TrEMBL record:
It comes from Mesotoga prima MesG1.Ag.4.2. One of its GO terms (cellular component) is plasma membrane. This is Elongation factor 4. Transmembrane segments: none annotated. GTP binds at residues 17-22, 134-137.
Length: 603
């Protein structure tokens, strides 16, 4: 048997918490892949933040050597896919590196919207699907219903679905057997020029960028000169190897295999996900299909709490970018917040992760302004401008039309919540209801077209509340469409705070402006004087809320108390200051800058 015929490249499609990490751990046990002494609790989850939130954004691939029932040892490569819609492009590239995918569904939860989205991506990539019902050890697992949902989704018969418990190990070996039998080995000629797909790239402090590749044709070894087809950049290969899951050097990576290439690349932006690596001396004519430049979907301002931290913030963002090609930033000067950066993210989860890591790893506390989508404005002279900052949104009369990104939104929900969900999305979220389809017993898929901005902010929690936690969502970008949008500016104590301005649809101008000024008046602490908070749009004040004056000294509380307590309080205030901002005479705390994100909280 050729080496290539013993290879299987797969990924695991699963909704958050359906048990992907646990299943891979069982695979590692069965194949004795990880030395148990070195084994952490769960191998696949790597970053602290991910561990705390219980979500895996991305993990290293892993190569298993599995001795199958037919007596042959197979090389099974498992490529992880991020489980969040912010990273859909990366999911599609990881799937493109595989011939098969395990579709893992928690039998106590059923099929969720994200699973459906990723299953369609797998089908588009011609992957062989192996449906697996997980957590069958749970007493209230709905095996029959979940089976029916899977049958509805992919049209397989129930007999094709495996049943397992990643926790107890029941049925896990059968999954590996199915992978070997049902998934085809990779094709692709070893003698052809090198053609490898980059499905991930991470930055290593000591070794530079480590590219994760799937070799489609040809081979690559140390000493080869490789070329990135999108950028044209050329590098010399220093090392190639496999993920066991720790990196293990090898002589060459051949057609069909998954592994890594190290080539003294200083910046991940030289090794873009989805790009094709070829040989510089003997290049292939055609790149692998599907490469796209990852484009940030949301932008927010990031400002150091105090001007002296500006350089630190810039250095931290620079370092961050080494490992995250999808992060973009440029300097921004705000009249209210001073010097900072306008930062582009793939989505809100991406934004949260970046902010948290800046705080933890770089100990930088910064002020983050409310995120916004990218607007496309056609000016009077016909010029088209992309607006990433509400502060630079033109005044009415200065532009001909404005467009915003729209998405195809799908929601899976028990049918009893259908009416309320449709009502919420069409009346409050500017959504257009398009279709409803059955998804198993008593469950439906609802399809809408809606503006991205509406589903990005104040959407998920409302959807969950309306459906008592049962609905799940997924979306795909449709493109830009014209909308009637206006800019609302906020004045605090009669001064315009540019970083609080936001863009809103004219129909919601008054209601949102009112909610924002009310929210701000709760979030901004009382001062010694009264503070008016006003919202202004199209030249008029459209909403106002006042913060009453206060007369109290923080230290008064500590009068007579011991000195250390007083010191601690002062110390704490100093810390807090880093994330506060003096605007004129008013101190505005960090959370006020995100007020627009929270206007739905009390409903
Ligand atoms: N009872 C039971 N619990 C399971 C089973 N498989 C996983 N779990 C539990 O389900 C929870 C989520 O499992 P993970 O493996 O972390 O899920 P995941 O899909 O990797 O989650 P993300 O990393 O967020 O994508 C954990 O508490 C597991 O212990 C199973 O077969 N039976």
């Amino acid at each position: 048997m050729y080496k290539r015929d013993r290879i299987r490249n797969i990924s695991i499609i699963a909704h958050i918490d359906h048990g992907k990490t646990t299943l891979v751990d069982r695979f590692l046990d069965i194949t004795d892949t990880v030395d148990r002494r070195n084994k952490k609790d769960q191998f696949m989850d790597s970053m602290d933040i991910e561990r705390e939130r219980g979500i895996t954004i991305k993990s290293k691939p892993v190569k298993l050597n599995y001795l199958a029932d037919d007596g042959i040892t197979y090389e099974i490569n498992i490529i992880d896919t991020p489980g969040h819609v912010d990273f859909n492009y990366e999911v599609s590239r990881s799937l493109a590196a595989c011939e098969g995918a395990i579709l893992l569904v928690d039998a106590s939860q059923g099929v969720e919207a994200q699973t459906v989205g990723n299953t369609y991506l797998a089908i588009e990539n011609d992957l062989e699907l192996i449906p697996v019902l997980n957590k069958i050890d749970i007493p209230n697992a709905n095996i029959e219903e979940t089976l029916a949902e899977i049958v509805d989704l992919i049209g397989y018969s129930p007999e094709d679905c495996l049943q397992a418990s990643a926790k107890t190990g029941q049925g896990v070996k059968e999954i590996l057997e199915a992978v070997v039998k049902r998934v085809s080995p990779p094709s692709g000629m070893l003698e052809a020029p090198l053609k490898a797909l980059i499905f991930d790239a991470i930055y290593d402090k000591y070794r530079g960028v480590v590219i994760h590749v799937r070799i489609f044709e040809g081979s690559v070894k140390a000493g080869d000169r490789i070329q990135m087809m999108a950028s044209g950049e050329i590098f010399e290969v220093v090392e190639v190897g496999y993920f066991l899951p720790q990196m293990e050097i090898t002589d060459s990576l051949d057609a069909g295999e998954v592994g890594y290439i190290i080539a003294v690349i200083k910046d991940v932006s030289s090794a873009k996900i989805g790009d094709t690596v070829t040989s510089a001396n003997n290049p292939t004519d055609t790149a692998l299909p599907g490469y796209k430049e990852a484009k940030p979907m949301v932008y927010a301002g990031m400002f150091p709490g105090m001007p002296e931290y500006y350089d630190e913030l810039r250095k931290a963002l620079d370092k961050f970018k080494l490992n995250d090609a999808s992060l973009v930033f440029e300097p921004e000067n705000s009249p209210a917040l001073g010097f900072g950066f306008r930062v582009g993210f793939l989505g809100l989860l991406h934004m949260d992760v970046v902010r948290e890591r800046l705080e933890r790893e770089f100990e930088i506390a910064c002020i983050l302004t409310a995120p916004n989508v990218v607007y496309r404005v056609t000016l009077q002279n016909g010029e088209v401008a992309e607006i990433t900052n509400p502060a630079s949104f033109p005044e009415p009369g200065e532009f001909l039309r404005v467009e915003e990104p729209f998405v195809d939104l799908s929601i899976i929900t028990p049918s009893e919540y259908m009416g309320n969900l449709i009502g919420f999305i069409t009346s409050e979220k500017r959504g257009d209801f398009k279709a409803v389809e059955n998804a198993g017993k008593n469950r439906v898929v609802l399809r809408f077209e809606a503006p991205l901005s509406e589903i990005m902010f104040d959407f998920f929690d409302r959807m969950k509340a309306i459906s008592r936690g049962y609905a799940s969502m997924d979306y795909e970008i449709l493109g830009y469409r014209e909308s009637d949008l206006v800019k609302v500016t906020i004045l605090v104590n009669k001064e315009t705070v540019d970083s609080l301005s936001f863009i809103v649809h004219v129909d919601k101008e008054y209601s949102v402006a009112k909610k924002v000024v009310d929210k701000l008046s709760e979030l901004i602490p009382q001062h010694q004087f009264q503070i008016p908070i006003q919202a202004k749009s199209r030249g008029r004040i459209i909403a106002r809320s006042d913060i009453k004056a206060l007369r109290k000294d923080v230290l008064a509380k500590c009068y007579g108390g011991d000195v250390t307590r007083k010191m601690k309080l002062l110390e704490k205030q100093k810390e807090g200051k880093k994330r506060m901002r003096e605007i004129g005479q008013v101190t505005i705390p960090q959370n006020a800058f995100l007020a627009i994100l929270r206007i739905g909280e009390e409903e």
